[in-house]
């Protein structure tokens, strides 16, 4: 079996775990062609992984010197007149508490290029002023690392240096809200859509298409295998022709609510189904504490009454029951809610977390990202051969409080 040497190229599956005031966060990243001669890796990873083979792993804490330090001097009080974003679909964007924006939305940021898209966070608002936190979103976090060897081969050529900690931590941190302060996701008509026509008519024609590439679908299946079990009664919200269950999985029952009867009838996982427009009627047609788990896959971005829907999810779950929401960075543009399209991908994890938190009936909130996987060749995938990476998968889950 090949083992890692200084000349090796390795495929490493990284898991970075950290915590915020409201959740545990896990960032998974498949790093391919990692050079043990050329690339920059978290401190200790190279020395601990030399001599390891496929299936081996190491755990360590990320050295504080590699996590950007939080610097109070990077939190600046600014007049609101310096917040100068471009118009978005003809609308004026206002700063909102807890939200992230590109630094180029601020005029004359000290030490920053005027075209910088690096994010800053609004951490305070008052009459005529706002606080701009220019620190990295992961500043000051304690991060645990799990590095698993997925493949090893001899090195070939010098290649281009990759700074893997920077690559993996580009985005994470933006899903955490300010301590004890919910993020303002609800200002500015967040649930407006480009197409406000009747959803029942829009979805009347079946669309049995895949919303994710094959690798991304497998990643959703793996997550379902990790968190669901055969003895569960499960509800699939906003279901379609596939529920993304692992092969051989047999729940006690599987109910599906969706918008198109033909798609639901084609879904082999469902033991019962019902056409239901949650935007028209968010009440779920089930008794209290009917389910062990509620899943929603690539559908949460279309909810215009998410608060009511997740209140209902809490109602129909048994105590300790699981709510699991997964999504990616693809959607039907006309029917996605405005706030979803405005947010950074990692901020959407924060939005969905807040959907669960605001019910006050969920605990043990976890967010997860899954990135870096190669996109498989697939003639049915229009992006195959164009995009090198599989669609990212983002997930949020929590459990209904006991009692």
TrEMBL record:
<feature type="domain" description="Methyltransferase type 11">
    <location>
        <begin position="275"/>
        <end position="325"/>
    </location>
</feature>
<dbReference type="GO" id="GO:0003755">
    <property type="term" value="F:peptidyl-prolyl cis-trans isomerase activity"/>
</dbReference>
<keyword id="KW-0808">Transferase</keyword>
<dbReference type="InterPro" id="IPR029063">
    <property type="entry name" value="SAM-dependent_MTases_sf"/>
</dbReference>
<dbReference type="InterPro" id="IPR046357">
    <property type="entry name" value="PPIase_dom_sf"/>
</dbReference>
<keyword id="KW-0489">Methyltransferase</keyword>
<dbReference type="InterPro" id="IPR013216">
    <property type="entry name" value="Methyltransf_11"/>
</dbReference>
<dbReference type="GO" id="GO:0032259">
    <property type="term" value="P:methylation"/>
</dbReference>
<feature type="compositionally biased region" description="Basic and acidic residues">
    <location>
        <begin position="370"/>
        <end position="383"/>
    </location>
</feature>
<feature type="region of interest" description="Disordered">
    <location>
        <begin position="370"/>
        <end position="389"/>
    </location>
</feature>
<dbReference type="GO" id="GO:0008757">
    <property type="term" value="F:S-adenosylmethionine-dependent methyltransferase activity"/>
</dbReference>
<dbReference type="Pfam" id="PF08241">
    <property type="entry name" value="Methyltransf_11"/>
</dbReference>
<protein>
    <submittedName>
        <fullName>Methyltransferase domain-containing protein</fullName>
    </submittedName>
</protein>
């Amino acid at each position: 079996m090949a083992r890692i040497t200084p000349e090796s190229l390795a495929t490493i599956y990284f898991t970075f775990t950290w915590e915020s005031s409201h959740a545990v966060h896990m960032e998974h990243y498949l790093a391919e062609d990692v050079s043990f001669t050329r690339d920059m890796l978290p401190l200790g990873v190279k020395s601990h992984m030399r001599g390891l083979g496929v299936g081996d792993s190491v755990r360590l804490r990320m050295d504080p010197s590699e996590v950007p330090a939080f610097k109070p001097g990077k939190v600046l009080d600014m007049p609101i007149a310096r917040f100068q974003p471009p118009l978005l679909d003809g609308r004026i964007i206002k700063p909102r508490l807890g939200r992230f924006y590109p630094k180029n939305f601020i005029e004359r940021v000290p030490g920053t290029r005027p075209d910088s898209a690096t994010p800053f966070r609004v951490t305070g608002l008052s009459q005529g002023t706002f606080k701009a936190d220019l620190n990295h979103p992961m500043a000051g976090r304690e991060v645990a690392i799990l590095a698993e060897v997925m493949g090893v081969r001899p090195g070939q050529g010098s290649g281009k240096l990759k700074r893997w900690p920077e690559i993996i931590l580009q985005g994470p941190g933006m899903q955490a809200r300010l301590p004890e302060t919910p993020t303002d996701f609800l200002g500015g008509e967040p649930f407006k859509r480009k197409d406000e026509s009747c959803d029942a008519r829009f979805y009347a024609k079946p669309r049995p298409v895949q919303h994710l590439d094959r690798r991304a679908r497998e990643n959703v299946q793996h997550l379902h295998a990790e968190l669901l079990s055969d003895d569960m009664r499960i509800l699939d919200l906003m279901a379609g022709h596939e529920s993304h269950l692992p092969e051989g999985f047999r729940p006690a029952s599987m109910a599906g609510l969706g918008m198109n009867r033909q798609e639901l009838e084609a879904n082999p996982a469902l033991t019962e189904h019902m056409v239901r427009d949650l935007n028209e009627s968010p009440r779920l047609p089930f008794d209290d504490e009917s389910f062990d788990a509620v899943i929603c896959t690539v559908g949460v971005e279309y909810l215009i009454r998410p608060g009511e829907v997740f209140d209902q999810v809490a109602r129909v779950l048994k105590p300790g029951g699981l709510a699991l929401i997964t999504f990616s960075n693809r959607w039907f543009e006309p029917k996605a809610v405005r706030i979803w399209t405005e947010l950074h991908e990692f901020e959407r994890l924060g939005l969905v977390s807040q959907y669960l938190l605001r019910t006050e009936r969920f605990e043990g909130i976890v967010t997860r990202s899954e990135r870096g996987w190669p996109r498989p060749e697939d003639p049915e995938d229009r992006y195959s051969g164009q995009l090198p990476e599989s669609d990212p998968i983002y997930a949020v889950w929590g459990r209904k409080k006991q009692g």
